[in-house]
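Quick question, first post here. What does this chain look like in 3D?
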Amino acid sequence: MTDTSASKPEVDFPTGPAPAELEITDITLGEGAEASAGSTVDVHYLGVEFDTGAEFDSSWSRSQSINFPLRSLIAGWQVGIPGMKVGGRRKLVVPPHQAYGPAGGGHQLSGKTLIFVIDLLGVS
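> Answer (accepted):
Ran it through. Tokens below.
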């Protein structure tokens, strides 16, 4: 079992306009196995809206990490997680076209730029 003791991150309220392209920032570099585009990843994550800072989802709030094949996730995760190593923490700022699409797209987060902080716990 992977160590899930890292604490839930806090996201500083962003300043300036939302980015037009995906922004990837490593907060902590991992030293374990590296995620690739075809990986299934075990992660803890926090998601907040760029414009309001409101949290919309957090695996920490459920006290349980999640396990997903990368190819089944939003484009921002499919591009932003490969190259990350187990033990790392990364922030992704994901514009709408790499998240849930333009406003009116039918998802509650359509049209929104999203910020995710992701802890990579495992790769398979």
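The first helix runs from residue 75 to 80.
The helical segments are 75-80.
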